[in-house]
Amino acid sequence: MSHQFPASELADRALLLATLPSLDTPHFLSPVIQAAATSTRQRLVIVLFSRLFNDPLPSSTTAFRGISHTGRWDDVHRLLTYVYVQATKVAQDLDKVLMDVDVLLLGIDGEAPEDIGVGMDIVFRVAGDSIAVPLPASVTSVRQSFLLPGDRDGDHSSEPRLSSPEPQDQGSLPPPPFFPVVALGGTFDHLHAGHKILLSMAAWIASQKIIVGVTDDVLLLKKSNQHILERLPVRTQRVRDFLQLFCPGLIYDIVPITDVYGPTGWDPDVQALVVSRETIGGAESIATHREAKGLPPLKTFIIDVISPSNERIDHEDLEMLRQTKMSSTFIREWIVEKNKEEEEEGEEETRGPAMGIGRN
User: Fold this and answer.
1) Pick the CATH number of 1-151 from 3.30.450, 1.20.58, 3.40.50, 2.40.50
2) Do 157 and 47 touch, CB atoms closer than 8 A?
3) By its UniProt entry, which PANTHER family does this protein fall under (predicted)?
4) Contact yes or no for 65/169 (Cβ under 8 A)
5) pTM for this prediction
6) Domain segments of the chain as ranges
């Protein structure tokens, strides 16, 4: 049965489990995600299970191999963006800007992590959904709440459906499903949904190692509300914690950077680079630098969270994307405003008794 907690029973930490039949935008999960986000105060972890996320390599012994991680980049990127936006928009509308939202993708060719439910107050499930992997005691021992999904557009099949593949140039070879070493960089202040999409997609296409360049504090002195900006050790640790949660089997080399290149400026083992649409210029500089140094070129993957020209995003979804503020600047401004409000309230409380005494 669908259940939403009254305000007095909001969960601090919640887990949401759901199965995906395809890589199509999961509109049927929208009411579930929004209800879970509404009922959570501090942290919501959303775990999406699908056969499509099984091991795609030919050496896999599973009966159903998963999709190519590079070949389905756009589909998975769009999926993650949709889910993050659904939860983040609700949190922001309810003034829970600092609520932590994590989205994980798990196949059904293995076991769910034993500790996935540790510390959770509630596990949200989708009514009528049957998770195809055994759930550990850390999940089954926690209170369960079943939420009603939206319309599945008549799709009641339990078999996974593949979205239309990305077109390939005639005569070109398809990309490998993974790249051994993938690099990316950023400031990663107050780690938010936009950062997590970037990090997730880098981990999604890496098979061995991810190199993350985190902007050093010395380059951030002119940032707005710089006094609120998290220091380098905090930002680095939050990046590491998230990546180890999303894909614990990889090696993570997280280093401070003081220029646009970081390790991509000298490391010949990097094969791929993940950048946001706003930092394509940096990718071009890296390409020029590597060519001058005689280093192998990098395959560049672009994260474009808001793409008005993308016809594969519904109008309503695009509008929600535009309204959702996935920005460290916005978060710092929100914190400053909250601190100001608390200071003003404290001053009013201090003045109140004094004024009362004066009147007596």
Assistant:
1) 3.40.50
2) no
3) BIFUNCTIONAL COENZYME A SYNTHASE-RELATED, DEPHOSPHO-COA KINASE-RELATED
4) no
5) 0.88
6) 1-151, 178-326
Lookup result for tokens 């059904």: 108
**H or E element: which one contains 41?**
strand 40-49
- Give, in order, the Cα–Cα distances in Å from 217 to each of 19, 150, 187, 227, 281: 41, 45, 9, 11, 22
Shared fold status for 1-151 and 178-326 = yes
* CA gap 39, 95 in Å, rounded: 13
Sign of CA dihedral 61, 67, 69, 71: positive
Q: What share of the chain is helix, strand, coil (3-state, %, to 5)?
A: 40, 20, 40
DSSP character for 172?
A: P
DSSP per residue over 85-131, as a string?
Answer: HHHHHHHHHTT-TT-EEEEEEE-SSS---TTTTTT-SEEEEETT---
CATH class of 178-326: alpha beta
**Among 32, 49, 54, 65, which Cα is nearest to 132's?**
49
Give the chain's radius of gyration (CA, Å). Answer: 22
**Short-list 163, 151, 162, 227, CA closest to 189:** 227
Backbone angle region of 274, left / alpha / beta, with phi > 0 → left and psi within -120 to 50 → alpha: beta
Each residue's pLDDT, cut to its tens digit, for the chain (360 residues) gives: 444 455 457 999 999 999 999 999 999 999 999 999 999 999 999 999 999 999 887 665 556 788 999 999 999 999 999 999 999 999 999 999 999 999 999 999 888 999 999 999 999 999 999 998 999 999 999 999 999 999 876 444 444 444 444 444 445 677 889 999 999 999 999 999 999 999 999 999 999 999 999 999 999 988 889 899 999 999 999 999 999 999 999 999 999 999 999 999 999 999 999 999 888 999 999 999 999 999 999 999 999 865 444 444 555 665 666 677 788 999 999 999 999 988 887 777 776 654 444 433
Q: Dmax over Cα atoms in the chain, in whole Å? A: 91
